[in-house]
Amino acid sequence: MNDVGVIILAAGVGKRMNSRLPKVLHPLVGKPLLFYPLRAARELRPKRIAVVVGRGADEVRRAFDDGSITWVLQEEQLGTGHAVRCAKESFLDFTGDLVILSGDVPLISPQSLGDLLRRHRDRKAAVTLLTASLEQPAGYGRVLRNAGGDITGVLEEQDASEPEKHIKEINAGIYAASPRFLFAALEEIGNRNEQGEYYLPDIIGVALRRGERIETVRAADAREILGVNTREELAIMEKTLQEKINRHWMAAGVTLKDPDTAYIEEGVTIGKDTVIGPNTHLLGRTTIGEGCRIDGSAYVTDARLGNDVHLRFSVVLADCQVADKAVIGPFAHLRPGTVLGRGVHIGSFVETKQAIVGEGTKANHLAYLGDVTVGRDTNIGAGTITCNYDGFRKYETKIGDRVQVGSDTTLVAPVTLGDDVYVATATTVRHDVPPGALVYNERSERVRQGWTEQFRERHKKG
Ligand code: UD1
Ligand code: CA
Asked: How far is 27 from 18, CA to CA, in rounded Å?
């Protein structure tokens, strides 16, 4: 069987996005738009993938450069036909079948691409177009057919008359073509149209004139071929893709209490019987174990949660690990480098950063634990603060096993509390404390009888 080569068009200005960011870098469910057509292309196991870039070329290259892509620069965006012509040099020695994709059509499925390629090969066509019927075809190129139903061309929206705009069959902007025909045909197309651009679909006219075979294939699902040209379309697509991801996880045994507000990015994994409440974001490389409960309003990025973890209402987790049966929140913030052992409790208004916390330890109220290692079965009292920063450097705090840190404790790092230490309430600890010791600050406590009344009297007179 012939080899496959892929050309992805991604040089366009993306005018209608009204953005400084190149269109194909706009994120869709956490991944740049171009990620999706690239992923679909790779499923074809192509010999070569060329991506045509122009606007923000360096930025796009940087975002995807893994050595597997042949980058083609289209310095001036003179149209889709011109863009493909720019890739000619990359396919001079190539005799297989070419598949052309649009960088702004992300939902295209490997199945549709497979269908396209199969038809193209079976019929030995010069060019095969993927088409779809849309109830609202506005903005797309319309497919023109003769009385016999054969395709005779593609008409861009801007060039179409009112009656022609009623045509519902549209060009998906996705093609299979033989390189021999394609690059020869591109030499013949002009730019005399409303936009003054070299239109790739004009190769249909060339094929007709030359008596070459032209085929069309309908996309398996018309939603696959939707393009992103505006932020509104991006938002609609985000929703569409999100719904698809959510359906996948529900089928895999995850309960979503409110799928409309569950935002789960591509690449996240979730174990069975996990229950996810409303307004939950699971982002990046997050993995969630089985039987977890996420009550709601959780913003979780690059976190690894074990099984039976309970995230209570309103928590933020980033780049951290949480072992089985831990309970986090409500209103907790786990920052990068947090590693929590089995059954750890992190309660309300507790912030952790670079904090390694041993099994069964609890910090249930109002604490800051930064640059710290805590042993197991330790209790961190309300209002405990690790003073880890002097404005220049960060310093470490070490807390042993079974330590009782009293409320309102400040631990001035670097400092170590041995195993089984007791810290009295309202202590500032500046020096290491040996295992089994009690540490407290001397502070005299006095009571002045009747003081309040005198104080208030003084103020009344003044
Ligand atoms: C294009 C098709 C239209 C089709 C639609 C499907 C043409 C002339 N029109 O229209 O028939 O219905 O896609 O989505 O092909 N690009 C370049 N260089 C350029 C111009 C564009 O690389 O000089 C890239 C863009 O970045 C984009 C893709 O080609 O990824 C399509 O270009 P766009 O301007 O979005 O074309 P549409 O107007 O959507
Ligand atoms: Ca487009």
From this structure: 15
Residues 295 and 352 reside in one and the same domain: yes
215 and 126 within one domain: yes
Q: Is the pLDDT of residue 103 over 70?
A: yes
Closest CA to 360 of 348, 344, 373, 384: 344
Domain-embedded: residue 339: yes
Q: Of the candidates 187, 206, 225, which is a domain's last residue?
A: 225
In a shared domain, residues 235 and 218: no
- The predicted pLDDT at position 462 comes to 64
Residues 36 and 144 in one domain: yes
In terms of domains, do 119 and 258 share one? Answer: no
Percent of the chain with pLDDT over 90: 97
pLDDT confidence band for 461 (50 / 70 / 90): confident
Locate 4 and state its tokens: 């496959």
- Based on the domain organization, do 188 and 285 belong to the same domain? no
Q: Omega into 330 within 30° of 0, i.e. cis?
A: yes
Q: Is the CB of 103 under 6 A from ligand 1?
A: yes
Q: Coil, strand, or helix at residue 154? A: strand
Where does a domain end: 201, 225, 249? 225
The CATH number given to whatever domain includes residue 414 is 2.160.10.10
418 domain residue, yes or no:
yes
- Tokens 């004139």 correspond to 209
Residue with CA nearest ligand 1 atom 16? 12
**Which one of 102, 154, 229 would you pick to mutate in the ligand 1 pocket, going by the greatest count of ligand atoms within 8 A of its CB?**
102
Q: Which two tokens stand for residue 241?
A: 């893709």
Q: Is the pTM of the predicted complex or chain greater than 0.90?
A: no
Strands 345-357 and 275-276: unpaired
Integer CA distances (angstroms), 167 to 135, 154, 202, 208, 222, in order: 10, 11, 18, 21, 15
Is 120 among the catalytic positions?
A: no
Instruction: For ligand 1, atom 1, name the residue with the nearest CA.
Output: 173
Tokens in use for 288?
């969630």
Residue 207 lies in a domain: yes
3-state SS, one letter per residue, for 311-331: ECCCEEEECCEECCCCEECCC
Render pLDDT for 301-310 as a digit per residue (tens, 0 to 9): 999 999 999 9
Closest residue to atom 33 of ligand 1, CA basis:
12
458 found inside a domain: no
Please tell me the predicted confidence (pLDDT) of residue 37: 97
**Per-chain residues with Cβ under 5 A from ion ligand 2:** 104, 227, 229
Q: Which of 166, 345, 365, 459 is catalytic?
A: 365
Which range marks the domain in which residue 126 is found?
4-225
Joined together, the tokens standing for residue 82 give 């011109």
Tally of structural domains, the chain: 2
